[in-house]
Amino acid sequence: MIRINRLRQLMKKNNLAGYFITDPYNLYYLTNFTGTTGAAIITMDQAFFITDFRYTTQAQKQAYEYTIIENKGHLFDAVTDLAEKENLANLAFEELHVSFAEYSILEEIIPCDLIPVSGLIEELREVKDEDEVAMIEKACEIADAGYKNVLEFIQPGMTEIEVANRLDFFMRSMGAAGVSFDTIVASGWRSAMPHGVASEKVIEKGDMITLDFGCYYKGYASDMTRTFAIGTPDSKLKEIYQIVLDAQLKVLKAAQPGVIGMQLDEIARDYIASLGYGENFGHSTGHGVGLEVHEAPAISMRSEQQLVVGNIVTDEPGIYIDGLGGVRIEDDLLITKEGNRLLTHSPKELIIL
C-alpha cells in the first residue's frame, strides 16, 4: 500500500482522478503480479486489478491489495465500466505503452477524459527500498560469482558463445531467474564493439576480453562489466585499461546525493579526453538499475537529474579502438547518505590469465 499511496500523492499533484497501468514493469512494481496478462486502475480511494480466468487465483495471492476483476471480454470494456462506476473525471494512461490504435478505441468508448502520462511511476521506482536493494544486491552477488567462474574455465580455443552460455547457465544455477540482457563476450578486435554480443569468434592468446553481463533475481537486475586478458595483451591496451580504471574510480569517489548526472559523466569524459582518448569514449558513463536493467537516473552528458539516496546506478566508462580492442569496467552502486556503496565486488585490476 505504501507504493500505491506514493502514486496517489503524484496523482493528486497532477489532478489525475484515475491511473490506468499497463507497462509490465510498473505493473509488477505496484501489484507484485508476475503473470503475463493484467492491468490495473488506481483511483484516489480504490485499486483494481483486471485479468482473465487464467490468472485470477494468482492475482488474488500476489495483488492482494487490489480488488480483482475477472475480465471476460475486451480489456477496454472493463476499463470503461470501471470509469463509469467510479465516476472518474479523467483517466491517465501510459502513453509509451498504449498504441495510437488502442488509444483511438478507448477514446471512443470511455466516458471521461484520457490524459497521456509518462515517467510518474518510473520516478517512484528510482528510489529503492530495503527489499529492492536486497534483491539487486543478491543479483550482483550472483554476477560476481559468475565472473569468478569464468576466470576459472576460460581458455584459448573456446568461442565467445561457449563462454556466454556457460556463464548464463552458472548464474541460473546460483538462483538467477534469467539474464539481464544478451551476455556480451567481446574478445580481441571485437572488444572495440561496446555491445559486442557473444559470437562464434574463437578466443586467442593475447586477446583482451570484455564481459558485460548480469542477471535477474526475483524481478531485479544486476549489470557489471570486467575486461581481462588471456596471455599478454598489447601494450596500448594495457595503457587504456589503466586510464579507464582511473576514470571509473574518479566517478566512484564523486558519486553522492546531490551530484547531477552530467557532472559525474563529465568527470570520466574529461579525464579520458585529457589523455587523448575522448573520441574513443562514445557512450554515457552510467544509468539506473532496478526492475529494468536500463532505467533512470542517467549519468550522461544531457542528464540534469540529481542523484538521491536510494538510487542504484552504474559506473561504466570505456575506451574503444577499432582494429585493436577496447576496455570497459562497470560496477553497480547504491547512493547512500554517506556517499555510495558498491554492490559489485569483483576485482578491477587487470587480470592476465
UniProtKB/TrEMBL annotation:
<dbReference type="InterPro" id="IPR050659">
    <property type="entry name" value="Peptidase_M24B"/>
</dbReference>
<feature type="domain" description="Creatinase N-terminal">
    <location>
        <begin position="3"/>
        <end position="127"/>
    </location>
</feature>
<keyword id="KW-0645">Protease</keyword>
<dbReference type="Pfam" id="PF00557">
    <property type="entry name" value="Peptidase_M24"/>
</dbReference>
<dbReference type="InterPro" id="IPR000994">
    <property type="entry name" value="Pept_M24"/>
</dbReference>
<dbReference type="InterPro" id="IPR036005">
    <property type="entry name" value="Creatinase/aminopeptidase-like"/>
</dbReference>
<protein>
    <submittedName>
        <fullName>Aminopeptidase YpdF</fullName>
    </submittedName>
</protein>
<feature type="domain" description="Peptidase M24">
    <location>
        <begin position="135"/>
        <end position="337"/>
    </location>
</feature>
<dbReference type="InterPro" id="IPR029149">
    <property type="entry name" value="Creatin/AminoP/Spt16_N"/>
</dbReference>
<keyword id="KW-0378">Hydrolase</keyword>
<dbReference type="GO" id="GO:0046872">
    <property type="term" value="F:metal ion binding"/>
</dbReference>
<dbReference type="GO" id="GO:0004177">
    <property type="term" value="F:aminopeptidase activity"/>
</dbReference>
<dbReference type="Pfam" id="PF01321">
    <property type="entry name" value="Creatinase_N"/>
</dbReference>
<keyword id="KW-0031">Aminopeptidase</keyword>
<keyword id="KW-0479">Metal-binding</keyword>
<comment type="similarity">
    <text>Belongs to the peptidase M24B family.</text>
</comment>
<dbReference type="InterPro" id="IPR001131">
    <property type="entry name" value="Peptidase_M24B_aminopep-P_CS"/>
</dbReference>
<dbReference type="InterPro" id="IPR000587">
    <property type="entry name" value="Creatinase_N"/>
</dbReference>
